[in-house]
Structures are given as structure tokens and as C-alpha cells.
Specification:
Helix content is 31%, strand content 24%. It has 276 residues and is an alpha+beta fold. The longest helix is centred in the first third of the chain and has 23 residues.
Amino acid sequence: MSDIDESPVLPPDVSDAEKRAAVTEAAARAGARVANDAFRTDMPVEEKGADDVVTEADRAAQRTVIERIRESFPEDTVVGEEEDAHKRVPDEGAAWVIDPIDGTHNFVREIRFWGTAVAAVIDGEPVAAATVAPALGDVYTADLDGAYRNGEPMRVNDVAEPRRGAVDPTLWWDHDERDEYANACEAIVDRFGDMRRLGAAQVVLPTVAAGGLEGTITNLRANPWDSVAGVFMIRQAGGTVTDLEGDRWRHDSVGLVASNGPLHDEVLAAAQAIEE
């Protein structure tokens, strides 16, 4: 696997899109390195709200990601989960969408399924993305030409039989919405051969892109830092991502339904069953 300390070296004549892709990966690697240094150490855990936690590692990793972005694109908007970053993706102009530690609950429980995610966006649409999962040894990236795991091209799988499929109920439902979580689980196990819950959307989405899962569903409105990078990877890997109505997903959609493509109708039906 690619070492997380490695950053791409750019020739002087790269395009803007290529530069953004390189900065996306470099910033994600830098943030992941900071987070990984704190992983499985004795650090205080703070509560941001019900069922939501944060650590100083989240904040330090986000500051590092932003610093790397600002070195090359000092005027761009930054959308992020922690501190004073913007919380909405602008429909016009350049922006960066970052999650310093996606899967913080896993992180604080010393479970390896977490990652640092960065996406470059132009006029509301991603043009590059990276998720670095250092505890797993994986670096997922996507640009305008394709999607990659550890530098090698990745593609969604071609499973078309629901009983061969495994689907993840992603994001998290509040305690007063646990009936919807139960519905999501039931909808999956009724339709597919297996269910996985990895607990980190920005690791789940690249896993779909790499063919390890056939789909992932939620009826919730995903925060952009939990979704934009991974959605772009799935699309660049040949998969399908829609909202709950089956329309093309975007950063402000309600629901997120991602699949390998051949199983999308079944995955969408499972997502729609959550609120029935």
C-alpha cells in the first residue's frame, strides 16, 4: 500500500483539475497522518451533542488539512465538520469539503474503520476526492479520469443477484428515530444476502467503489463532509448514486442510495422502505 507520508510530485504544466486532485490527496494524507499519530492513545473525548463526539485529533487534523489546501488555494471556501469551517457547499465557485476523522466513534473505540476525507468541488460538483484510512492501510482517490485504491484503478463489482449482495445502512439515526434504523436493517436483510455496518460513511462509500460492498443506504440528509468525496469515487468507479426518489444525488439531497449499478433498483427499494 502507499505510505501515507508520500505526496504526489507535480510537473510544472499541470491543469487546474490535476492540481486540485494532487492537493486533495496531499491534504488528506497530511490530515490522516496527524489523526493516526493520536489513534489508540489516551486522549480526552468530548461530546458535541447526543450521540456525537469529538477529540482534539479531529480539530488538529482539520487544521492541518486546511493549511495544506491554503498553500495552493488560499481564497477557496472550505466546508468542514469542525470549528468555524462553512457548513454548506456553495453552488458557485471553488470549494473544499473535508472530514478530518470520519468515523470518530470507531476512532475513540480503537477500531480501525475511520478515515480522513477531502473533496475538491467546482460549482457544486466534485472534481477530485481522497479518503485516507491509515489504520487500514488504504488510500482511495478519484479524479476526472477515474477512481483508485492505493494507486491502482478500482471499479464497482458486477453482482446482479440480490442474494449475493451485501449492503451497509450508513450514517446514524437519533435515538428517537431508531425505528427507522431498524427498518433499514430489516429492508436490507429481507432483500440481500448480507448486511455490514462499518460505522464510517467515507470508508463505506469507497468500499462500494472498490467492489467490497454492493450498496449503502440512508433516508437521512447526509452532511457534505460525510458524503461528497465517497459519492464521487463511486461514480468514477462506475457505480450509481441517487436520492430517495431515484434522482441523481447531490450534496443537498434527502437520502443517499449508492450501489454498484446492477442492483440499484433493489438498493433503492430498501432505502424507500425505511420510512414506510
